[in-house]
Fold this protein.
Amino acid sequence: MFIVEGNIGVGKSSFLKLINQYNPNIEISPEPKENWTKESYGQSLLANFYKDISRWAYTLETLTMIYRTKAHLKEQIKQNQYRLVERSIYSGHYCFAKNDFHNGYLSDLEWQIYNEWATFLITNKCFAPKGFIYLQTSPQICFERIQKRNRISEKNITLDYIKQIHNQHEQFLIEKKDIFENIKNVPVLVLDASENFAQNPQKIIYFSNQLDAFFNKSIAKPTPNTKIEKESFSSQ
């Protein structure tokens, strides 16, 4: 299993669809975001989050962790290793929940409870992926794409928030700062998503070739040990 990561608006869903069209042998697993974007009891949890982050941060991050864990457990037992999974429990932890805590949207108690669950799941239940594919571009480009797609649940997203999430992705996937030991050695393929690749078939061919090489190299390596004793949260 390989995990596709990237900022909000970078084009992960489009990337997965186009790669699957070009190479049907690659299985894709979209992020189960309908579980927090759809309206339940007349409200969307994601829309509520962007309206009042402090009120809804713990609720949203806990729910997304549940569904991303379910998806991870389902995918890790499949036989076909050439699979792309959109987002993960890892970025949920290191990019979104961590950012909420640093901004004071999660209390110390909420962060501790969240961390207890994340540590248990990542170190005991979720096997490390074979690799991460990081779709990387500037926060400004992501913000412009968010505005262009004009989703109701995202109308309150600010450029400042997108910049924060970008920085968290950089720390997680490029710097590998303060992350679980069992994923520190997981390789990362960085793809420049600045260009509108959906309008450029040659770019998709290039991405597909990069993926093939990355797959073959990463699958030949043993999967990093998924069990660690603990993670230090003091620096988070």
Notes: The first strand starts at residue 2 and ends at 6. The chain is about 55% helix and 10% strand.
